[in-house]
Amino acid sequence: MCIIFFKFDPRPASKNAYRLILAANRDEFYHRPTKLANFWGDNNEILSGLDMEEGKEGGTWLGISTQGKLAALTNYLQPRLDRDARGRGELVTHFLTTNIDSLSYLKKVSMEGHLYNGFNLIAADLSTAKGDVVCYYGNRGQPEPVVLTPGIYGLSNALLDTPWRKLSFGKQLFQEAVEQSQALSKDTLIAQLLDVLNNEEAQLPDPAIMDQGREYVQPFLSKYAAVCVRGPNYGTRTNTIILVDVEGHVTFTERSMLDKDPTCWETSTYEFKLQS
Known about the structure:
It holds the Pfam family TANGO2. It comes from Loxodonta africana. This is Transport and golgi organization 2 homolog. Helix content is about 20%, strand content about 35%. The protein is an alpha+beta fold. Strands 3-4-5-6-7-8-9 form a seven-stranded antiparallel sheet, covered by helices on one side. It has a six-stranded antiparallel sheet with strand order 10-1-2-11-12-13, with helices on one face. A hairpin with a 5-residue loop joins β3 and β4. The relative contact order is 0.20.
């Protein structure tokens, strides 16, 4: 279970506005080996955490490059998984390491979507000169990817903007923070977005989650139905905030659980200028 909220406006009217504000949670088993976010790639041009699970090393759930490529992934909640399916984290890594544009990439992915368990994939080209393009594809939805119009979006473990109660609740909190963004310092905005991501209020009842997850989700529903998932062995392990301003300055903040301990966290921030 993961959740992503984002707002983008390629041509904001104010110089104090952000072209992109993204806030995301990665939910995973606490024991799954993971590298914290850092720069990697041939020229240290890609910034992301990395999955180190055996057989899926090098995949990731969210990343951005200095060239302006950004991708984010959530799994689609399904009662039974195909254990022989390809690792979904490679979908993000492949986009970040190729020169293909976001829409063309998602069209290619859509032709191979049957090889994976259910997923949602956001791919974006952020260009200060040409304007930003953000695209979406989910392999349990429409057969073709779509180019998104500027606005505010929410994505969890159903298709884009499916109104699960926790998604609608979190999206409203995200929107309230975003609407104040120009009046807030960057640090204050990041703090408010982290508060959104760490809200543990269960949004129940939610027939939509129960219908999609069926018997699989029932034992965990009270935990899964919150923006921040907090179970004994599984839950929100990583909060990520990405801000991109009018001039292409990127601020990437990651708050990560340490030592499988939900009371122990480390926060790191990286800043760079898009080269596109």
